[in-house]
Design brief:
The chain is α/β, with parallel strands linked by helices. The chain contains eight helices and 15 strands. It has two domains: about 130 residues, 2-Layer Sandwich (VC0802-like), CATH 3.30.2130; about 150 residues, Vaccinia Virus protein VP39 (Rossmann fold, 3-Layer(aba) Sandwich), CATH 3.40.50. β14 and β15 form a beta hairpin. S-adenosylmethionine binds next to α5.
Length: about 300
């Protein structure tokens, strides 16, 4: 019997399998990028989303399948994989899920959304609840192709949308590993005061934005005990995750930052042990967002 399911981003199935193994959840089988488990849901950072109340439902006919879902609740997202025509016919019998791109900093949708997929012509897996309010965990934004100097801003938009908080006007931010300036652009547009730290220079247009100041030096050379405390510490530094963990701990211990949003970047093998250390920090949130590459986002809020 399947009781939970976990959707990996393309190419990250092995990382998700390792998460589930570490959390003690067995994988019964893979259904495309969806790991089906007979165990109760666990926390799995590499999942784009978890289906937390999965159950198998008979689909004797398209109409009967759609009726079974509508009896449970109104809104259902479809993970399409097999029996394309039949599953599309079934999806057409359900209320459409609005897929309008989000306009940052608009909050994530709060409406209740379940998920379903056809496992066989006569059987589906459905979960009335899942961890992401977006279809298949995919957050799409109305993009800005003019302002930001890199596409990294989408990763920060997603992280801030996901945690449901963002710096406000007048709040202070340190943006470590800021160059060329996508994250600094996001923060400055929110009205925050940003100190961008990078060994490389910031894009000139970003450096000139109101509220932005630059320090061209290594983020690891800053001593948090000597710095003016900030409301938010951001890091998108390219470095080994254990080095980032040391940096985050130093800033936490010094009480020099209230909120943290950092990217753990992996080169080659994923460092699951260090990811687990980040996840174990009380109050931490660790996730693989739709806009993340081979990296996880860590957030810790006051
Ligand atoms: C992925 S890029 C950051 C992109 C940026 N968040 C944006 O939105 O444009 C990683 C950055 O980390 C910087 N970096 C690497 N080592 C660093 C260090 N020790 N101190 C500060 N920055 C560092 C690199 O120079 C590079 O600009």
């Amino acid at each position: 019997m399947i009781r939970s399911a976990y959707l990996a981003a393309e190419g990250f199935e092995a990382d998700l399998a390792e998460d589930l193994h570490r959390a003690g959840a067995r994988i019964d089988t893979w259904h495309g990028r969806l790991a089906l488990s007979p165990d109760l849901p666990v926390t799995a950072p590499w999942a784009l989303e978890a289906w937390t109340d999965a159950r198998e439902i008979a689909v004797p006919s398209v109409k009967a399948g759609a009726d079974a879902l509508r009896t449970i609740q109104r809104n259902w997202a479809h993970y399409p994989l097999l029996h394309h025509r039949r599953s599309m016919l079934l999806a057409e019998r359900l209320p459409p899920v609005k897929a309008r791109p989000l306009v940052f900093p608009e909050p994530a949708p709060t409406g209740h959304l379940g998920a379903w997929t056809l496992l066989a012509t006569d059987r589906m897996l459905a979960s009335p609840t899942k961890t992401s309010p977006f279809v298949n965990g995919e957050v799409h934004f109305a993009e800005d192709r003019e302002g930001p100097p890199s596409r990294a801003y989408l990763k920060l938009w997603e992280a801030l949308t996901r945690i449901g908080r963002h710096p406000g006007p007048g709040e202070t931010c340190l943006d470590l590993g800021a160059s060329p300036g996508g994250w600094t652009w996001v923060l400055a547009r929110l009205g925050a005061r940003v100190t961008a730290v990078d060994k490389a220079p910031l894009d000139a247009a970003i450096a000139a934005m109101p509220g932005v100041s630059c320090r061209q030096e290594s983020a690891f050379g800053l001593d948090p005990r000597q710095e003016v405390p900030v409301d938010w510490l951001f890091s998108d530094i390219i470095c080994y995750p254990d080095r980032l963990l040391g940096l985050v701990r130093r800033w936490m211990e010094a009480g020099a930052a209230r909120n943290f949003v950092c990217t753990l970047k992996f080169q080659g093998e994923t460092d699951h042990a260090t990811a687990a250390e980040f996840a174990a920090i009380p109050g931490a949130c660790l996730f693989h967002g739709f806009h993340n590459k081979h990296e996880l986002t860590f957030a810790l809020l006051a």
